[in-house]
Specification:
Chain A: This is Cytochrome b. Chain A: GO terms for molecular function: electron transfer activity; heme binding; metal ion binding. Chain A: One of its GO terms (cellular component) is plasma membrane. Chain A: Keywords: Cell membrane, Electron transport, Heme, Iron, Membrane, Metal-binding, Transmembrane, Transmembrane helix, Transport. The complex is a heterodimer of chains A (180) and B (189). Chain A is mainly α and 180 residues long. Chain A has a single domain, classed as Fumarate Reductase Cytochrome B subunit (Up-down Bundle), CATH 1.20.950. Chain A has 4 helices and 2 strands. Chain A has a two-stranded antiparallel sheet. The longest helix of chain A is centred in the C-terminal third of the chain and has 32 residues. With 189 residues, chain B is mainly beta. Chain B has one domain: Lipid/polyisoprenoid-binding, YceI-like (Lipocalin, Beta Barrel), CATH 2.40.128.110. Helices cover 14% and strands 52% of the residues of chain B. In chain B, 24% of the residues are buried. The chains are: A mainly alpha (180), B mainly beta (189). Chains A and B meet through α3 and α4 of A and α2 of B.
């Protein structure tokens, strides 16, 4: 059961969802942590390099996820109220958009001087845009978007829990079990 | 004809005497014949160099009266450039220059002591990161004279060393000496 049906998610969509959820929480924590490290900390360089590498991988996962979403049926919302289903759908779109913008802003910080991003030594992502002091504006946007994303992620998770506990429907369960 | 020659030589002498008065020079940042560079030791193993790309200033200089020299330089701190975007961003942050709060750094001379031909000691108020200190450092005249395009130029170089901690940047690199180098060429006004 790899593909989605109109009522439930397939294994690929579920795997991509939880992989990105894990990466986003991890990256938020790592991001907040790495900027507090002082120059002499052993992780001063590795924390940033890891953050950049995972960021690029999340970008690839997001591209795969969007392609998969377009080429698969999207399971319909389970709320009885159409407004709630529409709100959930808009929240999902906003989550994708925020993740994409967050990735772009992060990429722009590290590539502002023409340097490429080295992903765990496997491959490099070249710089495409160099503007004077771009690292500063991109940095402010990156921090703002990170907090915005986390607020929306918390709302998204709270809504899933509400569906599970209060509405007692399959919303959360079908994101854990393929083909439900 | 003789009269004309005389008149010419008199006006030439007049010109020459004007030139002997302290003249005002504008630092040629327009043509980038000036630079503010710094270097700091990376872990004690090597020199890391950087510069401030955006600054402006003027000075007065008279080879006959060097003790009357004066200089004023204003540096835009956000123009700090170490050829590495992530490091530049860090240097502009509150860990170092805090450029949002302290957008400019200035040096205003208060005195110049001649120590030799074309050398001297410049004293002045240096403001960095909102902290003003009086510093004295040696300067050398590199040269002066007419340029090929109708102007007159004079150039100097000076170096000094500061500690970031003395200017309120007393973080983990606060006691690391930073060598500052000022190279200016002025275009006489």
């Amino acid at each position: 059961m790899l593909k989605n049906s109109t009522s439930g998610y397939g294994l690929v969509a579920i795997a991509l969802h939880w992989l990105m959820a894990l990466a986003i929480f991890g990256m938020f924590g790592l991001g907040l942590y790495m900027v507090t490290l002082n120059f002499y900390h052993p992780w001063y360089h590795d924390a940033l390099e890891t953050h950049k590498s995972i960021g690029i991988l999340v970008g690839l996962a997001l591209v795969a996820r969007v392609i998969w979403r377009i080429s698969n049926p999207t399971p319909a919302g389970l709320s009885a109220k159409p407004l709630e289903n529409t709100a959930a759908h808009l929240a999902h779109m906003l989550l994708y958009a925020l993740i994409a913008a967050l990735l772009v802003s992060g990429y722009l910080i590290s590539t502002a001087d023409g340097r490429s991003i080295d992903v765990f030594g496997w491959f490099q992502v070249p710089s495409l845009l160099q503007v004077e002091n771009l690292e500063d504006s991109a940095g402010e946007v990156h921090e703002f978007l990170a907090w915005t994303l986390i607020v929306l992620v918390v709302a998204h998770a709270a809504a899933a829990v509400k569906h599970h506990v209060i509405s007692k429907d399959n919303t959360l369960r079908r994101m854990l079990r393929p083909g439900l | 004809m003789k009269k004309l020659l005389l008149a010419l030589s008199v006006s030439a002498a007049a010109l020459a005497s004007t030139a002997a008065n302290a003249a005002d020079y504008v630092i040629d940042t327009q043509g980038a014949h000036a630079s503010i560079n710094f270097k700091v030791k990376h872990l004690g193993y090597s020199w890391l160099t950087g510069r401030f790309n955006d600054f402006s200033g003027k000075f007065s200089w008279d080879a006959e009266k060097p003790e009357a020299s004066a200089i004023e330089v204003t540096i835009k701190t956000e123009s700090v450039d170490t050829n590495h975007a992530e490091r530049n961003k860090h240097l502009r942050s509150k860990d170092f220059l805090t450029v949002d709060q302290y957008p400019t750094s200035t040096f205003k001379s208060t005195g110049y002591k001649v120590t030799g031909k074309g050398t001297g000691e410049l004293t002045g108020e240096f403001t960095l990161h909102g902290v003003t200190k009086t510093i004295t450092f040696p300067v050398t005249q590199i040269g002066e004279g007419k340029d090929p395009w109708g102007g007159y130029r004079a150039g100097f170089s000076g170096t000094t060393s500061i500690n970031l901690g003395d200017y309120g940047m007393d973080g983990y690199l606060g006691n690391l000496p930073v060598e500052l180098e000022l190279n200016v060429e002025g275009l006489r006004q």
